[in-house]
Amino acid sequence: MKRRVVQHGPSTLTVSLPAQWVKERGIEKGDDLEIEHHRRGLLISAKRAKKNDVKHINAFGTHPITGKAFAALYKYGYNEIIIHYTHPDELHYLHTIINNGYIGFEIINETKTSVHIKKISEPQQEEFRLLFRRMAFFLLSVADDTHHAAQDHDIDSYRKLVLRDENINKLADVCRRIVNTGSQTEYKSDTALYHIIEQLEKIGDHYKDLNRTLIDCQAPLPAPVLGLLLEANKILHFYEQLFFAFTMEKMRQLIDDCKAFSTKADALLRSSTKYNAEAIGIMKQTVRDIDDLSGTTMMLHL
Length: 302
Known about the structure:
By secondary structure, this protein is α+β, with helices and mostly antiparallel strands. The chain has helices spanning 19-25, 64-76, 88-98, 128-152, 155-180, 190-216, 223-244, 248-269, 274-301, and strands spanning 6-8, 12-14, 34-38, 41-45, 54-58, 80-84, 105-110, 114-119. It has 3 domains: 6-45; 54-119, 2-Layer Sandwich (Translation Initiation Factor IF3); 126-301, Up-down Bundle (Methane Monooxygenase Hydroxylase, Chain G, domain 1), CATH 1.20.58.
């Protein structure tokens, strides 16, 4: 997209904003825009949803689609959401969804047929890096603690680790909301960053699934499978180091490590029991998803 530069006065140059971009973000006269200078150009950002936007949706009983719809609107950037319901069971379910951890949102009003949820606070753009790092920290700690629990075949620890996935989900949701509302200016591609956050949340789900599988295992994981889990965790730790201190040499090593892991996992699968094979399959998918992050990570850093 090209824009002609127009001169106003002796030293002021202006360009017009794309009409579609202005419409999508609800930009009006007098609004403030963030302009960041990057190596390859200027990044202009603005919040996408107007402060006065209110989105109405209907509850679908206690079907999970209601929670998914609310999460989608939260991540998109809406500041007020009204959910209409017809049955008391739906109200209880809505409370469970909303109180599950949507940072900055609270129920501000209820009627016999609706729940009104509104943003009461919003993380600032400078907090994005902190929140993103915290999400990575929670993910790494769950990975490490899963290995420790597996060493002792600690059923109680497995159950607690399943619940800890909610911390990762909550931080992933607020990070995606910040990206979607144009409130982060540190990284040059919102599209790539959103994909990375989505993948990291998915990796957290894999560890949740792994712990659920281990709960059903009647015996501890054998040493070779425990070693495979440790290797998967090391690859995850290495990706975190690569992301915050990127080099192409590290990226090459990550891709090679993921390939070697897949080969080793395939060899173990051929001689594994049902539950061990299920656990190995989850580990293999985890590392495959880390490998899939390579392209979007390079988009951010090259």
